[in-house]
Amino acid sequence: MAEKVLTGEIVEEGEGFKASENGKALATENEVHPVYDYLLGLGVRSRPTQESALRSALSVLASPWLRDRYGSLEEAFSAWGSVKHPDDNIATGCAGLFDAWHMTTDGSRTGGQDKVKRIGDQVRFLTEHQRQFYTSIVKYFKEDLRVGSLISPSNWHVTDGQMLDALERYTYTAGDVIDRHGYFGGKHEGEGSNYSVRVGHTFANRAAVKNPEHLPLQVFQIDGYPHIISEIGWTNPNRFRADFTFLSSAYGALQGLDGIFFFAVNSANS
To answer: What is the pTM of this model?
Structure first.
C-alpha cells in the first residue's frame, strides 16, 4: 500500500485511499492524505468533494474491525444502543463515522453512555488504523527506499488535546521520533491574519509568562522515544516576544525534550 500511495498510483477503494486530482495520493503534509486529514479528529482538510469519499472509505474499513471486536455489525449496533448514524447500513456492511467534534470531550458526552461507547470504538479504530498506516510507510522508507535517517510519522494536533493528544502521539511510535508543532500569540484579526500582518489588522499583546497553561511546550511523553518540537514560534504582532527563547529552553529542559527548532528566524529571500 505504501508504495502505491507514495508513487501516485490510485489505491483500490477497499484499501481506504484514493489518489488526489493531481495524481499524487501523498506528496507533502498539505497534499491529500486521507489518514492525515481525518483520523483522531484532526479536522478534514481535503476538498468537500473528497470528504464524502474519504468518510465512506473509512466507514467500509471500520466494518471488519467491528466484526473482529463484536462478532458482527449487528452486535456492534446493539452495543451502541440508541446511538445511530445516517450512514449505518448492515446490508452494505457500513458503520457510519461521526464528525471530529463528536470525538471531543463535550461531543462524546452528548448522548449518554451509548454515545461514549460508540465514540470510544470509533477513536480506537481510527487510532489503530492510523498507526498501521504509519507502520507501512516507515517500513517502505527503510526497507525499499533504504532511508537511513530517523523518521517522524507526523507532527499535527488534535481537536481536543486532553482527550486525544496522547493517542495521536502513540500512533507516531510506528516511527523513530515523536514530534509536534506549536505556536503562541495574542488575539490577531483581519484578512490573512493567520499568515501575515497587514494595515487594518487588530491585535492584542500577550505575555507567555502570564499564560503558561497555553504554552505549546506541554508534551505527552512516550517512554523510550525521543521527543522534539520541529516547529515552534511566538507569532507577530506581539510586544511580548522576548520570553520566547528563554521559556522554550527552560520548559523544554523541564519536559525532557530532545530538540526544539525555532520557526522562523528569517525568510529565504531576506
So the answer is: 0.79
